[in-house]
């Protein structure tokens, strides 16, 4: 992709900024399929292991801090601080001899992600024309899907071969150090704030919370995203408990399929969501996702059937999830930043609740119970979406 028509943005800038996110996202995502292995390694219950997901998600609620640091001191500095936290967290996980040390490491990884993502968005947005910004941010966002293919899958294979996670997290720390060095060479960009006499004060979160219909629409990301996260957190335990007896390498290979499905889902949003309509895309996508969740517990132990169903599920959840961001961006047109921040917070809270409850549900009812609770939460979230006065009609 040629970037010559983007002011001040070189291809290398985009690559370096995206690479930094790729490292953090890989560490963020790998904990999901790694939970059974970590539970065995540290001799803890699956429910205790799931607190890793809760702590990194809770740390991600600090995203507004990343935006504030970027605005005050520059986006590049904020990203460098985030990478320093990431390196600290990855090294802590690599050298951990106890679950507590590993837990603290993931707290740093969660904070790093929370600081890096908004700062990366701000840096790339400030250095690109608005007319072409979706292409730039789209590449940055693809780090989420790509991390499953070139990050999670090979590291899971390595962990399975060595039956220890030290080397995998050492590699992540090394990538973080390399990204830090490359990012250090990039030019800084500072926001310049201008005070306009007589201008209206900025739309604050406190003002947004007083808006009719806001609490209702925010139930959608909390319930729909949180409900589906129950499957994300327990799918590895389910796969290992089937007669297939999937190991870490096989589960890691499955993440390649998941990454491809997510890329396909994101691409489908670009191609079809505007024509179909964002609201229809979100509602239809989550309804079809719910169908997949209800079918998955009963597909048997045929690996190919399971793979096809998981591919379909992740394609649909990615399509529905990505389509929800432009839908929410129009819920409060005069305060898009505030609205998206509140949506991110609602998603984070939903995922924390999911992480703290999914292990208990899985141990007492397996995937069938997880699916029922996740589908119920999704449908309740969709109902809230359709009932809010803030939800765009298209």
Descriptive notes:
The protein has 394 residues and is mostly helical. The protein has two domains: 10-186, Up-down Bundle (Growth Hormone, Chain: A); 212-394, Growth Hormone, Chain: A (Up-down Bundle). 79% of the residues lie in helices and 0% in strands. It contains 15 helices and no strands. The chain starts with 10 loop residues before the first helix and ends in a 7-residue tail after the last helix. Residues 1-6 and 191-202 have low confidence and may be disordered.
How many β-strand stretches? 0
Rg result: 21 Å
Number of helices: 15
Shape: globular
Range of strand content: under 5%
Features:
disordered N terminus; Growth Hormone, Chain: A; 2 domains; mainly alpha; 394 residues; 15 helices
Short description:
By secondary structure, the protein is an all-alpha fold. The chain folds into two domains: 10-186, MFS general substrate transporter like domains (Growth Hormone, Chain: A, Up-down Bundle), CATH 1.20.1250.20; 212-394, MFS general substrate transporter like domains (Growth Hormone, Chain: A, Up-down Bundle), CATH 1.20.1250.20.
Describe the secondary-structure layout:
Elements: H1 11-41, H2 46-49, H3 51-60, H4 63-73, H5 75-95, H6 99-126, H7 133-141, H8 143-162, H9 166-184, H10 205-209, H11 214-241, H12 248-276, H13 278-295, H14 303-329, H15 336-387
């Amino acid at each position: 992709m040629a970037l010559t028509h983007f002011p001040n943005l070189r291809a290398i800038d985009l690559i370096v900024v995206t690479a930094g996110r790729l490292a953090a996202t890989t560490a963020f995502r790998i904990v999901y399929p790694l939970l059974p292995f970590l539970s065995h390694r540290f001799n803890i219950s699956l429910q205790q292991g799931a607190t890793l997901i809760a702590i990194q998600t809770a740390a991600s609620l600090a995203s507004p801090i990343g935006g504030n640091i970027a605005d005050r001191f520059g986006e590049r500095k904020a990203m460098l601080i985030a990478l320093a936290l990431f390196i600290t967290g990855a090294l802590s996980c690599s050298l951990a001899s106890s679950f507590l040390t590993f837990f603290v490491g993931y707290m740093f990884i969660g904070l790093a992600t929370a600081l890096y993502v908004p700062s990366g968005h701000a840096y790339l947005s400030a250095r690109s024309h608005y007319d072409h910004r979706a292409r730039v941010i789209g590449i940055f966002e693809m780090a989420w899907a790509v991390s499953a293919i070139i990050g999670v899958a090979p590291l899971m294979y390595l962990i399975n071969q060595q039956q220890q996670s030290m080397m995998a997290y050492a590699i992540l720390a090394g990538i973080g150090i390399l990204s830090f060095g490359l990012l250090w060479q990039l030019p800084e960009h500072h926001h310049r704030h201008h005070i306009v006499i007589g201008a209206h004060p900025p739309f604050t979160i406190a003002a947004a919370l007083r808006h009719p219909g806001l609490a209702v629409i925010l139930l959608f990301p909390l319930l729909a995203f949180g409900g589906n996260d129950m499957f994300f957190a327990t799918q590895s335990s389910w796969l290992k408990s089937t007669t297939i007896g999937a190991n870490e390498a096989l589960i890691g290979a499955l993440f390649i399929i998941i990454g491809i499905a997510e890329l396909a889902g994101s691409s489908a949003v670009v191609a079809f969501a505007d024509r179909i309509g964002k609201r229809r895309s979100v509602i239809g996508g989550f309804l079809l996702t719910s169908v997949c969740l209800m079918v998955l517990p009963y597909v048997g132990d045929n690996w190919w059937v399971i793979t096809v169903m998981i591919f379909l599920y992740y394609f649909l959840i990615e399509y529905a999830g990505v389509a929800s961001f432009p839908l929410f961006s129009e819920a409060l047109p005069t305060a898009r930043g505030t609205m998206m921040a509140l949506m991110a917070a609602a998603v984070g809270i939903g995922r924390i609740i999911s992480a703290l409850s999914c292990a208990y549900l899985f141990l007492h009812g397996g995937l069938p119970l997880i699916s029922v609770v996740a589908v119920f939460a999704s449908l309740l979230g969709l109902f809230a979406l359709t009932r809010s006065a803030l939800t765009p009609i298209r």
